[in-house]
Amino acid sequence: MPRQKCLSQKDSAYQSISKLVRRFEEQFLSYKSKEYNETQTRQDFINPFFKALGWDVDNTNDSAEAYREVVHEDKIKIGSATKAPDYSFKLPGGKRLFFVEAKKPSTIVKQEKEPAYQIRRYAWSAKLPISILTDFEEFAVYECNTKPKETDNADVSRIKYITFRDYLNEFDFLWETFGKENILKGSFDSFIENTANKRGTSTVDQEFLYSLDEWRKQLALNIALRNQNLDEDELNFTVQQTLDRIIFLRIAEDRGLEPYGKLTECLIGDNFYRKLYQYFSDSDNKYNSGLFDFRKDAISKKLNLDNKVIKSIVTQLYYPLSPYEFSVISVEILGNAYEQFLGKQIKLTNGHRASIEEKLEVRKAGGVYYTPQYIVDYIVSNTVGKLLEGKTPREVESIKIVDPACGSGSFLLGAYQFLLDWHTNYFLKAKNSKGISKIFTPDGRLATDIKKKILLNNIYGVDIDSQAVEVTKLSLLLKCMEGETLASIDRQLKIFNNRILPTLDNNIKNGNSLVDLSYYDGQIDFGYDKHVKAFDWKKSFPDVFNKRKFDCVIGNPPWVDLKGHPTDLIKYYFKFYSTAENRVNLYSIFLERSLQILNKNGTLGFVLPNSLLYQSSYERIRKLILDDWYVSNIVRLPDNVFHKVKAESIIVAISGAEQLANCLFYPKESTIYAIRSETASETKAVDSKEWLNNDFCTFDIFNNSEDAHLLKKIESGKTPLESLCDFTLGITPYDKYKGHTPKQIKGRVFHSTTKKNDTFKPLLEGGDVKRYIVEWGKGEFISYGNWLGAPRQKKFFSNPRILVRQIISGNPPRIYAGYTEEELYNTQSIFNLISKENTNVNLKYLLALLNSKLINFYHGHKYLDLSKRLFQKILIQNCRTLPIKTIDRKNREEVKMESEIINFTNKLLNLYKEINKQSLTSKVEQIQSKIDYCEEIIDGIVYQLYNLTTKEIDVIEGGKGKKIGNSVLPALSLGKKERSRKMVFSK
Predict the structure, then answer these.
(1) In this structure, are 929 and 781 located in the same domain?
(2) Does residue 704 belong to any structural domain of this protein?
(3) Are 36 and 149 part of one and the same domain?
(4) pLDDT beyond 60 at 333
(5) What is the pLDDT of residues 912-964, one digit of tens each?
(6) pLDDT per position as a tens digit, 663-691
(7) In the 8-state DSSP scheme, what is residue 148?
(8) H helix or E strand, kind and range, residue 942
(9) Could you please report the per-residue DSSP string of 157-197?
């Protein structure tokens, strides 16, 4: 039985560790002597200790280097420090879990600062939450989210300390936390969640960003001062290149590709920069990277740079001043820091002084948002991964993958890593095939030529930011260089006369993915427009477009409103993109462009706001997708995926109709998934072609078949609310595009806590709109007039009207609609409805419907993701479409029901006002019971008006309906499903 097997493994481990403890106790003094060294300790005790816990310490499974469970690092002594930890423990697939740093027993692990600093530095650099320091006599577990300092005492961030005499008493902790079998079951994650300190943490990518910012500032100020001839673009280029070159070479040192400390040799003599430049120049012969190609950089050779700046940057990159251990920092972590770094640029003042400012497009977007690695991995796995199924390496050579807004290259790095792993696995299964020795190095890694070939054959990218392009190249080259050694480089240089890295100028391009040369039609004086950078896809990638376009498009395109973009660009977008309408966001245009460059057998995977699913501005792009392509899956992402971004986000995977027809990779169905952290699960299956019949072709992903039937019945024969009411959003007080200055906006000059003059009107907050009533909290006034950003028409603030609060709350979420006849003003946290002229609809009747359970059920199941708990809204475009039962004036029964609803609504208006005045709990409870009664009566009448059956009412009331918030949380590998167009819902 599995249970007995587990117990026997645990018992065996206990016995093995008991023997080690007994042996160490019996010969304690000899093991504590200084003559007994670290290598002996590892062989005699630490290796057997982790073997007992189930780890393949000696690689008896003969796994390739990239897939070993336990990696023994080659340690290089650097003064009193070392270059890498003794052990890396990994999950199947290669993901690091924790490091173990070994010491000899004469070390006092409990007290000595340096060993603790070492292990924390390694793990913090690798972004591992915990790691272990042990000499077998002592066993210390450290939380490693906190930035380490050389001066920290040994107990700083230590969360567990035991000695060998505690091992048997603490065996359950050791087995459950670090035993391989239990780690695979999630015990390690639970331990981290429960014990690791997350307060006040500063991750390695955050700290590296701070360092990059500081080094950029130092370089920019000094280069601008000493090189007055440089313009702004040249200054940005030179600073970026200098910094990238230094970091590249410093990483090469810690990976053993350059002699350790070689950069510090440039800090000798008089002119540090001359020596540094010579080092850069020599590196071109070795690496062949565009990073060191001085044929396209005529600036660096003539540069003047003060010694103190170079010394400051270089010394901060070395132990002990540097907390970074570049041998274990992944390229992905560096990319995270660089993504944020790219959000700023160097500007020159009139006196040729440098300043660092946030880029305009970043300000518009509200910041730079790095895509979490698990989302990158998911998209790559379900796009690139599907394309590779059933293929040979020769067939894979022709697959072309592109990110049209590549930024720092996170998606391209993910795709490249996936391809490297795929080739490794493929060739491992063919170990005995002819020519295999040319594919792997002696230590079991893919040969350099193979890695270069994959990079050049398969990976492409474009970005409008020239700095981003250089960072993407740097990241990909660092990934290509992983696993190389001095020996492997020397072998290539001496035997094959072959430099280690490829040039990526033909793969990663600078340009505007959305604007081609047609932008210049009719122009004679082109000028120099930074915001344009027209880009010809066919001429830039002839090898791709001479065949069949790209096979895969992946990425996270910019989420930026077009408002504020240059007028000429906006006109171009609306002229050349058929799906551009209303107030579209840039991501929608990127989606259309990406489908234009994708072949009909291809696949696309993007991270997007979920506004794509339902907002009317994106109706055309949804229709284009449904008409010409196939939605293979949509993934609902958890809240707050991107820090400080309130918009809910999704992953959309789209595949070509030809691919679907051939059934090459996907079953003929669209699947909706929920994803949280690093797992995903199917929640239901949907026939996406049915979405063509929805209002605005909405991607209706939230309903099961029973709900969908009920929603259709509620809609049938009803009148959209916008046919009965005129709508407006609330006031926009300030708008820089209308001429308001930053000082006016920051000072909120149109707001006041007192009524300064007759232009100042009472201003409502969202919380002032309650169910049925509106009560001004006497908070602020606003000066109303044409000077506002968007004042709206006065009738929406003075006529009898319904106000709807955008934020909804409760479980299930309820709409807050209130009625008022007072002159009150509001901003966009509230929207306003007044009766259309020549309609005889009663606003109090509509008020009751908006607050009814039926309309709330309809809105929630039509437009919301009810598994979410944060930031739910009713949008004005969705409110416009709410289905309203209009009263047939010839039907006495309907007229009577309307009259009853209005009567009970009037009672509720009085009761809600009365309850808010009460201070005694007993009186509040009495009034609340009357409110509940009135609302139940109204709900019952509404059910009759909409002709619902008892069963359908029960669904709305929650008796048999689907349980709100009961979405399943999932498995990243999404297996094949039955090949059926009609999708099956799973709860």
Answers:
(1) yes
(2) no
(3) yes
(4) yes
(5) 999 988 888 889 999 999 999 999 999 999 999 999 999 999 989 876 333 32
(6) 333 334 556 555 544 555 556 677 777 77
(7) P
(8) helix 921-945
(9) TEEEEEEGGGTTTTHHHHHHHH-HHHHHTTHHHHHHHHHS-
Residue 723: inside a domain, yes or no?
yes
Copy the structure tokens of residue 271. 């002119």
SS3 per residue for 342-408:
CCEEEEECCCCCEEEEECHHHHHHCCCCCCCHHHHHHHHHCCHHHHHCCCCHHHHCCCCEEECCCCC
Structure tokens belonging to residue 270: 């008089």
Helix, strand and coil in the chain, % to nearest 5: 45, 15, 40
Mean pLDDT over 127-153 rounds to 93
Q: What residues make up the domain containing 343?
A: 204-365
Looking at the structure, tell me whether residues 211 and 172 fall in a common domain.
no
DSSP string of 838-887, one letter each residue: T----HHHHHHHHHSHHHHHHHHHHH--TT--S--B--HHHHHT-EE---
Mean pLDDT of 171-178: 94
- The C-alpha atoms of residue 910 and residue 904 are separated, in whole angstroms, by 10
User: Are residues 867 and 785 located together in one domain of the fold?
Assistant: yes
Token look-up 């960003």 returns 209
Report yes or no on 47 lying in a domain.
yes
pLDDT digits (tens, 9 = 90+) for 787-816: 999 999 999 999 999 999 999 888 788 999
User: Is the domain of 8 the same as that of 104?
Assistant: yes
Q: How many domains does the chain have?
A: 3
The residue out of 134, 165, 195 marking a domain boundary is 195
pTM, entire model = 0.73
Q: 951 is written with which tokens?
A: 């069963």
Task: Summarize pLDDT for 882-923 with one digit per residue, the tens.
Answer: 999 999 999 999 999 999 999 999 999 999 999 988 888 889
If asked whether residues 168 and 231 sit together in one domain, one would say no
Judge whether residue 843 has pLDDT over 90: yes
Residue 939 included in any domain: yes
> What is the structure's pLDDT at 465?
86
